[in-house]
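Table S2 (continued). Query chain:
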Amino acid sequence: MTIGERIKELRKKNDLTQEKLADYLCVSYQAVSKWETGLSNPDLSLIGPLTKLLHVSADELLGLKNDTKDARREELEKEERETWKSGDLAQRYKIASAAVAEYPGETKYLCWLAWCEAMRSFDFADQQEYVAEQEKAIKRFACVIENATDEDVKRSAIQGIVQYLCFRGRHDEAKKYAELYPDDLSLSKAQILLDCLQGEEKTRHYQKMLDKMLIFLLNHIGTGDLLACEAQEKIINALIPDGNYLRYHYFLADLYGERAKIYTSEGEYETAVNCLKKSLDHAAAWDALMAEDTTYYYTTPFLDHVSYHRDDVWKTGTGTTKEEFYEYIKRKPFDRLQGREDFRQLFQI
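Corresponding output:
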């Protein structure tokens, strides 16, 4: 429908003749006739008065229907969510770029794009490109923080800018942004629900909370040194003593890989290779779980009401964990192990 056809439809709906509408707008009735027959369009200066006379918004008058916009938003957001299951960062970047182009000024989509740029910076082998991509992401995060009205979007941008400023060694700047993060000490919905539930339902809910808190704790301990790696290992084995690790295979693969790097730097090569073997075992176990469309349950008493399914996991890459392992041990920190037979055997497993 053209703007002229909409003017005609709305004019009749408001019980106005062409002459009456023309009088109100201080134009000739011939001008109104030309709009309605498609021979010309109203001047931009008349859009405001037309919306008031016809009792519609400018979007409605111009045919920019909200339902069409909302459908497109839903489409983009569904596609973006799917990439966290597939791990396809290239597709996520494409979606985020399209969203920013179609909805300029929308801080949520700008935050999507910033995260994509930040994460894909690690794909650049060239140091200058790697740094430039992170700087681009930092600039976008700052723009989101300055303009976002949605607190969830702002929190996400603060997390991003703090993380990547620290990567760039700009810790003082990162601290200033970290101070902006809300310090909310109120009870969470999960904590409130815990008081309302009973029996099996309460146990299941409590264990899900424990699972989330455990992941949060492990992420914050990190694997920066042997002490941190050992702490992670002890915590995991204390809560999952039966070895049915499920998603914690991923954490164990990572921490054994980091321990191997540290032991290599200290000249303890045999210990380093043994850690790499354990890392590879856990990587293979994790990949096996990710390959099956099956719901698994932990068997430890601490988590035996918690299930795991591959769709519950957000992927950040399309490769398997074993593939990531083999790329990892090709890095410079492991050059000292290249001549060892036990190290070469890892590539044959």
